[in-house]
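Table 4 source record.
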Amino acid sequence: ISCRKPLFYCKVIFHGYYNSLAFMYFISGMQ
């Protein structure tokens, strides 16, 4: 993934994106 200088924000957004995906997958699996 290509990011600009603030690498910290890129990591937060990147991990937040995958965490939300995993969370949605988990919720859909429970139903």
